[in-house]
Amino acid sequence: MYIRLFPEPSRLSKDQPPLVRFVLKVSNSAGARRPYISPVHERLLRNYDDFVWPVDTTFVGRFIIDVEFLDLKIYSVNGGEASSTSIWPIDRTIMQSLSMQNTLRCLSRMLDESIHTDVTIHAVGGTLSAHKAILSASSPVFHSMFHHNLMEKESSTIHIEDMLVDSCMALLSYLY
């Protein structure tokens, strides 16, 4: 499969094309399969052909493509010498934001790949795995469920009989 972006034409981009670092993430909209996460791409984008990337995945049906830009630089040639300048200043706020994004990406990966899960959720049409600590921290309902002596605390199983598995996955994605 190939992913193609359609850039907005600009005279500036011809004289000073963007140099970008980014990651592609392709996930099944149902969340049933592990997402594909590309290696970090670093590419000088000069023409329409530079906006095409092959993705090694076998997803069929609906899927979601996320493009996460890690850096965006303006590339220029001055007297035969190439240079690039980031348009995103690096400061403490941005570093904290990048750290937070990385943490959120790790939490999302824990959910998507069922890494060290400790609770099973049975919804209409399927079963999902999650983490008690994350659910408790994100939702007062789940916190109460695991804090008090309820059946879910002892069995590590939650039955949600009035929610489709896709809706439940959307709820979990929001909580994570």
Provide a descriptive summary of the structure in words:
The protein is of the alpha+beta class and 176 residues long. It folds into two domains: 2-89; 106-175, Potassium Channel Kv1.1, Chain A, CATH 3.30.710.10. The protein is 32% helix and 36% strand. It contains six helices and ten strands. It has helices spanning 11-15, 92-112, 132-138, 140-147, 151-155, 165-175; strands at 2-4, 18-28, 36-37, 41-44, 52-54, 63-78, 81-86, 119-124, 126-130, 157-164. Strands 2, 3, 4, 6 and 7 form a five-stranded antiparallel beta sheet that branches. Strands 9-8-10 form a three-stranded mixed beta sheet. The chain is elongated. The chain starts with a strand and ends with a helix.
How would the blueprint of this fold be written?
Layout: E1 2-4, H1 11-15, E2 18-28, E3 36-37, E4 41-44, E5 52-54, E6 63-78, E7 81-86, H2 92-112, E8 119-124, E9 126-130, H3 132-138, H4 140-147, H5 151-155, E10 157-164, H6 165-175
Parallel strand pairs: 8-10
Antiparallel strand pairs: 1-5, 2-3, 2-4, 2-6, 6-7, 8-9
Helix pairs in contact: 3-4
Organism: Cannabis sativa (Hemp)
Protein name: BTB domain-containing protein
InterPro entries: AtSIBP1-like, BTB/POZ_dom, SKP1/BTB/POZ_sf
Give a quick rundown of the structure:
By secondary structure, the chain is α+β, with helices and mostly antiparallel strands. The protein folds into 2 domains: 2-89; 106-175, Potassium Channel Kv1.1, Chain A (2-Layer Sandwich).
